[in-house]
Specification:
Layout: H1 8-18, E1 23-39, E2 42-62, E3 65-74, H2 78-93, H3 129-142, E4 146-162, E5 167-182, E6 189-196, H4 204-217, E7 221-222, E8 227-233, H5 235-247, H6 251-255, E9 280-283, E10 317-321, E11 324-325, H7 332-338, E12 349-352, H8 359-364, E13 368-382, E14 387-400, E15 403-408, E16 410-415, H9 417-423, E17 426-427, E18 431-433, E19 445-447, E20 450-461
Parallel strand pairs: 7-15, 8-13, 12-19
Antiparallel strand pairs: 1-2, 1-4, 2-3, 4-5, 5-6, 8-20, 9-10, 9-12, 10-11, 13-14, 14-15, 14-16, 16-20, 17-20, 18-19
Length: about 475
């Protein structure tokens, strides 16, 4: 019997039947992807893929505590199941007690579609998008610019079963569009990206028109030195910075004095004001258009993730509320260590509370400053302050008297997202956005543009 002819829930049930451990968690992930790629105003490749992966978590009780063993495999067939389960059990018996050990989750209602076939994507997801992309190619060709980029759509159906009776399932669609426009001599480049669930809400023609304007701005070149500049960060750049902040918001690390969220003298900074603007940073699995798994799916333990928490409900969490730090990420184990509430990191991130002003309106209200396109190659410099460094890319523009007057050179920046929240003087309208740097790992974000009066461009970069 082939892997594809066996339903995922059957694989989960059979693995649980085979388990001889004291506890068992089985996670089956069914993947399907469809993609398009293009270069020089012409499609180059397209494809559709399918795949399955299975993770088995075995837990073994002992005198000194409970140990866990985790084994994951792809393309698992029914014949592979028993060796896989035994390997997880052997790994658990060979391990010491797990620091994050907790009783496996119970009491979560069974998903009504647990036994249904997995959701799958196909090339049909591009039925409306592909013709519109062809029209954008024609307009770009006529306008003397070249379009490069890709569109990718993924659908993952995740099935979670446990020896404590949980039977959960979540379907996660995830689409990304990245579009680059270049001048024929390659001296000018502009980028735009979008996140989508189904490609029905993205318009390649509108993106091409936006990029044409940016290439026009770049016809005038202005060289500027390193320094601190009033800077407008677009939603994609804000997302990249705040996603890293979320990833660094470990409650345990903060309580142990190792992060920017640690309070001098001990404890955490929860309750402190991080921004004078009434900003709220939150995660919500039910956020319209950004829906994510409403329960924990942990294929391994580490940081603020624990395999013992699989199936734990995930609700709406405010990380920052009205400018005040409210929560840090925790597992059940680290919540017990720190005294903080249980707060699993969510699958999306939203910043709201700004004014209902578009980025264009914020540009119009700028006397002199810089407008960024996006950030990339972001790396941590100092965890104690969450100082990050990285580069600007695909267009930094000079704004003078409310108008974009040219393109300036790229920069390396050194900034902390926590400090930026404290120094931001304006936030615009929240909108769905695609993080450029973290788009391979985290795509479900909605952010406003931010105005920072003194963004630190630490050195000039020669990148395009």
């Amino acid at each position: 019997m082939s892997a594809r002819s066996t339903k995922p829930h059957e694989i989960v049930e059979r693995a649980l039947e085979l388990s001889r451990a004291d506890g068992c968690v089985v996670i089956a992930d069914e993947h399907s992807t469809a993609n398009l790629r293009w270069a020089g105003n012409a499609l180059t490749t397209n494809g559709v893929t399918r795949g399955r992966s299975l993770t088995v978590v075995a837990t073994v009780d002992g005198k000194e505590g409970t140990a866990s063993g985790v084994v994951s495999r792809s393309a698992v067939t029914p014949e592979d199941l028993e060796p896989l389960v035994r390997a997880a059990e052997a790994a658990a018996r060979g391990a010491g007690p797990a620091e994050d050990a907790q009783p496996l989750v119970t009491g979560v209602p069974e998903a009504p579609d647990f036994t249904d076939a997995p959701a799958e994507t196909s090339s049909a997801v591009f039925a409306d998008f592909a013709p519109a992309l062809g029209e954008a190619f024609a307009r770009a060709r006529a306008g003397g610019r070249e379009l490069y980029g890709f569109a990718n759509h993924e659908l993952v159906s995740t099935y979670v079963g446990t020896s404590t009776g949980l039977r959960l399932r979540h379907d996660q669609p995830n689409g990304t569009l990245e579009l680059n426009a270049k001048s024929p001599d390659r001296t000018r480049s502009a980028w735009a990206g979008r996140s989508t669930r189904d490609f029905k809400d993205v318009d390649p023609g509108a993106l091409d028109a936006e990029l044409a304007v940016r290439l026009g701005w770049a016809e005038r070149r202005v060289e500027l030195p390193a320094g601190r500049y009033e800077t407008l960060l677009p939603p994609t750049a804000v997302a990249d910075l705040l996603i890293y902040q979320l990833w660094s918001a470990s409650g345990r690390d903060a309580a142990e004095g190792r992060t920017v969220f640690s309070k001098p003298g001990g404890g955490t900074r929860i309750g402190e004001r991080l921004s004078e603007l009434p900003l709220t940073l939150r995660s919500d699995p039910n956020e319209p258009g950004l829906e994510s798994a409403p329960f924990v799916v942990a294929h391994s333990s580490g940081g603020d993730q624990s395999v013992f928490d699989n199936g734990l409900p995930v609700g709406s969490t405010e990380w920052v509320a009205g400018g005040e730090l409210r929560n840090l990420t925790t597992t059940r184990h680290t919540a017990g260590l720190t005294g903080l509430p249980v707060a699993p990191a969510g699958g999306n991130l939203i910043l709201d509370g700004g004014a209902d002003r578009s980025l264009e309106e914020m540009v119009a209200g700028t006397g002199r400053g810089l407008l960024l396109t996006c950030l990339w190659y972001i790396r941590e410099v100092d965890p104690a302050t969450l100082l990050l460094t990285g580069l600007t890319r695909d267009g930094v523009y000079l704004v003078e008297n409310g108008q974009v007057t040219g393109q300036v050179n790229n920069f390396r920046f050194n900034e902390s997202p926590v400090d930026l929240l404290g120094r931001a003087t304006e936030a615009g309208r929240t909108e769905k956005t695609l993080p450029r740097e973290w788009g391979d790992w985290f795509t479900r974000a909605a952010m406003p543009a931010l105005r920072v009066p003194d963004f630190n461009m630490s050195s000039v970069s020669q990148g395009v």
